[in-house]
């Protein structure tokens, strides 16, 4: 069933009023008519609604959706700034895999640099990508997407999380197979996790030392070297398996 994320003011009692983008999608793309049902979500609460006729498009709430597809742990992805298509892939697929938030950060080896003049256009596009991915994958919540920050500011946020994991290529090269497994194996339901992935050239030795000294667990991700856009998806998949499928 098609899903739409709305604002609180769009629901009054048992009546739902759609915004223009959602209405256009319902009428033009889905070609739905009066009597058809969709799911609307507001602040993590989702309802099955029946479409009515009229301008603007409205619907009536029928019942509350009971299925919950959110991960039992809150995973924030700190992805170093990379080329636009790679970052957008991480946002889209990371949302499908259950990420709760995304924090782009400026790493030493990031080819892409932050440009405040362009950022005002990028952030709305990033938020649109995660919103559409959340609708497609049946999420209850749309992940938060933050403006890019520096590594020092990222480290200052470590205290917000129960566990910080950083993918580090050098750990994989020396055959590390335990750090990621052991850290995740002790992770309980309701905990918060920050996963950190460097840019195309990886984290520098200096960055890795600072992250480790500040409490991050430096992890190898198996015997193969993963691309920057693959690593966070691997980590999210492993966390999903551990917290959702293996229990």
Automatic annotation (TrEMBL):
**Entry keyword annotation includes Membrane:** no
Going by the UniProt record, its keywords in alphabetical order are: Cytoplasm, Methyltransferase, rRNA processing, S-adenosyl-L-methionine, Transferase
Q: Which reaction does it catalyse?
A: uridine(1498) in 16S rRNA + S-adenosyl-L-methionine = N(3)-methyluridine(1498) in 16S rRNA + S-adenosyl-L-homocysteine + H(+)
User: What is the protein named?
Assistant: Ribosomal RNA small subunit methyltransferase E
Limits of the Ribosomal RNA small subunit methyltransferase E methyltransferase domain: 70-239
Cross-referenced NCBIfam families, in alphabetical order?
Answer: PRK11713.1-4 (NF008691), RsmE family RNA methyltransferase (TIGR00046)
Q: Which organism is it from?
A: Alkalicoccus luteus
The protein's job, in short, is: Specifically methylates the N3 position of the uracil ring of uridine 1498 (m3U1498) in 16S rRNA. Acts on the fully assembled 30S ribosomal subunit.
Q: Which family does it belong to?
A: Belongs to the RNA methyltransferase RsmE family.
The kind of enzyme this is, by top-level EC class, is transferase
Give the GO molecular function terms: rRNA (uridine-N3-)-methyltransferase activity
* InterPro entries linked: Alpha/beta_knot_MTases (IPR029028), PUA-like_sf (IPR015947), RsmE (IPR006700), RsmE_MTase_dom (IPR046886), tRNA_m1G_MTases_N (IPR029026)
Domain of life of the native organism? Bacteria
Q: Which Pfam families match?
A: Methyltrans_RNA
